[in-house]
């Protein structure tokens, strides 16, 4: 056995492509270059004042200076029970809830609870970069179920049914989606739930962008449209990061059947113990507030969505689907690549765009969606307009 080696489970782990591009853009900015970055996956707003005030008070309270239960503060778990009922109609108790260090940590711990080596996990593609890496960390096999712009970047129940094998243990669902912004309608969610119920596999539903929708239609949770059979296999993941502009506070959670929740709480007691109490108190303030408190942020995203999507749609060579939620748009460069640059890729064009036009986007390859770019519209209105102007000029020059 070679000494001093790094375990393959980590040498084979890909770094987060979105974070890497964002860091590169930030480094260029630090060296004085005027970069417009569409790469970030986080709201550009500060956390609302009332939440910051609650955290400041919490930091002064010695109750929060000690270890607390690994699964989370009782008050916060009670509140999560309430918002779960409000937002997805699911009735659970605090024993079904574990507070985690963000949604990513929640997904990691949920996968630790359900994936054995060789198990297959179905993931609609294009997908958020961390899902397959997390599945692989536990020896699982991520299986992509492809979607295209033509079908609205949504999998059909028939596709899911056909992808299920004897080794499939779970399906990952995210609506609104990162990177495409696709939102499944109630009927589409119901049809998907039926197939998943029949299959009897675990379903991890990532609801982190649940409150960011723009077409007047709410995002339907699979919990609302599934039967008890589905609920017995349903792991909901959520958090305060995107809705409340709290990415840096690191508070997420899972709501899951009791055996999963207690396995995850057990893992967390060995892995990271409780989430920082001050952050949990901030999350309590966020969840106690009416959702209207976040409306100004949602309105700003809605405005920017209109600006960016109309501008991109007007660029010759790009094909764009109006995203119904989250804060991403995923334009296809297929026509540009086919006609003008057959030997190139979205990745190469993204690199050139950054170097030549000083605009950062994430190439679709990172999400198993080649031939496209992901642009986040969580940036100021002026920067956004300048960025799309540069993109139009860059594509025009190709
Ligand atoms: C689809 C999706 N799920 C989960 C997360 C994780 O959110 P956090 O760990 O910041 O709570 C993100 C963050 O980018 C995401 O895009």
From TrEMBL:
Its EC number is 2.6.1.-. This is Aminotransferase. Its cofactor is pyridoxal 5'-phosphate. Pfam families: Aminotran_1_2. The keyword Transferase applies. One of its GO terms (molecular function) is pyridoxal phosphate binding. Residues 34-391 form the Aminotransferase class I/classII large domain. The keyword GTP-binding does not apply. It is an enzyme of class 2 (transferase).
